[in-house]
Amino acid sequence: MERSNHTVTEFILVGFTTDPVMQLVLFVVFLGVYSLTVVGNATLMVLICNDSRLHTAMYFFIGNLSFLDLWYSSVYTPKILVTCISEDKSISFAGCLAQFFFSAGLAYSECYLLAAMAYDRYAAISNPLLYAQAMSRKLCICLVIYSYTGGFINAIILTSNTFTLDFCSDNVIDDFFCDVPPLVKLACDAKESYQAVLYFLLASNVIAPTLLILASYLFIIAAILRIRSTQGRYKAFSTCSSHLVSVTLYYGSILYIYSRPSSSYSLERDKMVSTFYTVLFPMLNPMIYSLRNKDVKEALKKLVWLTQ
């Protein structure tokens, strides 16, 4: 991929603070969060692979979500940890491009995957007796492949349009990773055509999956209302609660960052929101999908018993 400005060979990541004490504190915090992220998502994937009770469409998607979150967090956190304890805050142009590409591809893939999970919940609640046939293994694999394919194709579009901008202002990124808002602030030729590309990607990768999720939940609500018993309605809704929390947290932060015009970017405020969906959210997902899940708890107990 060619660059339009050959004078920029690296970027400087400002991070969160220049205070050495606070940097050390942040290093410990981010190391703890990343450790929990790796352990939580890896454990969930192992449980889903090893326990036959978890070999259903729902857990297949949850396992893939854990894989995405583990990979997604690993794109950012190691570099954040290095930045916190090292005097060298630089990241090469190629390194910044790679981080940007993988972060966009994984973020977009997760948007599509969450939409596929919403359809899975609709299929499970609307006709539970035919759920296994409706959500066949072939269909589940295809939905996951489509999620990754769509996510990374759009990441190529975003990355190619972003890194052919002229970064003539400065090479200091007022953030902890290479993202759209700080890079646009550095560019001197972020024209309306680039903003149009951002809106197209927002519509295809965030708005469209959001509409699919909303449509799925409208059908889910209609199906739940047809259930006569209160206990049956509660049980049906409880199977969707984890996914609903996950969607609200993820899409809420994504829409906040990327649905605004570039002229309204506030890097300090955006930095805090970005921390949530890039670092904290991958840690929270295993908790969201396992804390109230009896099958996962039983699988964990079985795994602990076997390892003793």
Describe this entry's structure for a reader:
75% of the residues lie in helices and 3% in strands. The chain is mainly alpha-helical and 308 residues long. It has one domain (10-307): Rhopdopsin 7-helix transmembrane proteins (Up-down Bundle). The chain has a three-stranded mixed sheet with strand order 2-1-3. Helix 1 (20-50) packs antiparallel against helix 2. The model is unreliable at 1-6 (pLDDT under 50). Putative odorant or sperm cell receptor. Its main location: membrane. Residues 40-289 form the G-protein coupled receptors family 1 profile domain.
In quaternary terms, these chains amount to single chain
Q: Helicity level, as a percent range?
A: over 70%
CATH domain class name = Mainly Alpha
Structural class determined from secondary elements:
mainly alpha
Report the C-alpha radius of gyration, rounded.
21 Å
Arithmetic mean of pLDDT: 86
Instruction: Record the strand order, biggest sheet.
Output: 2-1-3
CATH superfamily label: Rhodopsin 7-helix transmembrane proteins
Major sheet attributes: 3 strands, mixed
Short description:
InterPro entries: GPCR_Rhodpsn, GPCR_Rhodpsn_7TM, Olfact_rcpt. This protein has 308 residues and is mostly helical.
Keywords:
308 residues; mainly alpha; Rhopdopsin 7-helix transmembrane proteins; three-stranded mixed beta sheet; 10 helices; 3 strands; disordered N terminus
